Amino acid sequence: MDSGSADAQSPGGDRAAVKALSDHEIIELIGRGRTLRRAALLELIDRARTDAHLVQPLADLAEDPRLREDRLFHLVSMAWVAIIGLLGIETRGSRAAASRAFAALDARDQELLLGYLRVERLEDAHPDRV
Fold first, then answer.
1. Which of 69, 71, 85, 117 has the highest CB neighbour count under 10 A?
2. What's the rounded Cα separation, in Å, for the pair 34 and 2?
3. Exposed (0-12), middle (13-18) or buried (19+): which is 50, by Cβ within 10 Å?
4. Which residues in 100-125 are b (16+ Cβ under 10 Å) and which e?
5. How far apart are CA 37 and CA 18, in angstroms?
6. Least confidently predicted of 25-34, 39-48, 59-68, 99-108
């Protein structure tokens, strides 16, 4: 997978670049692990806030083993970003999907994500934005 260095260099420019893509193109971009994957994931989360049909593709990505291994920086994986995004959407379906994706993480990753969110249980996490 790409190192993601372009994501870190110009996130605003990357977000503008993916904004013009279709939902399908964004989902494909994230799944392939391309350089703009972080910006694409954030765009998908933003779109899923207003388009309930995008919650399931976001949930599928959150459970994808490739995203669990794709670290953006230090401990934070693409799966964490997707889970936090699902929690932030704050619907019953999105929170259930976040719980399923969280359950797919290994025990250590679960512990670290809870620490990152500063909660003891995932049910207590209510992030506003990713």
1. 85
2. 6
3. exposed
4. ebbebbeeebeebbbeebeeeebeeb
5. 9
6. 25-34
- pTM of the full structure: 0.86
Give the CA radius of gyration of the chain.
Answer: 14
Structure token pair of residue 97:
């999907």
Nearest in space to 40 (alpha carbons), one of 87, 70, 8, 7: 7
How many angstroms separate the CA atoms of 65 and 108, rounded? 15
Q: Which residues contact 20 (CB under 8 A, 6 or more apart)?
A: none
**56, 75 Cβ separation under 8 angstroms:** no
Per the CB < 8 A criterion, the answer to whether 58 and 82 are in contact is: yes
CA distances from 114 to 25, 58, 106, 123 (A): 31, 20, 12, 10
Question: CA angle at residue 8 from 57 to 108, to 5 degrees?
Answer: 60
Report CA-CA distances (Å) from 44 to 48, 79, 99, 111.
Answer: 6, 13, 19, 26
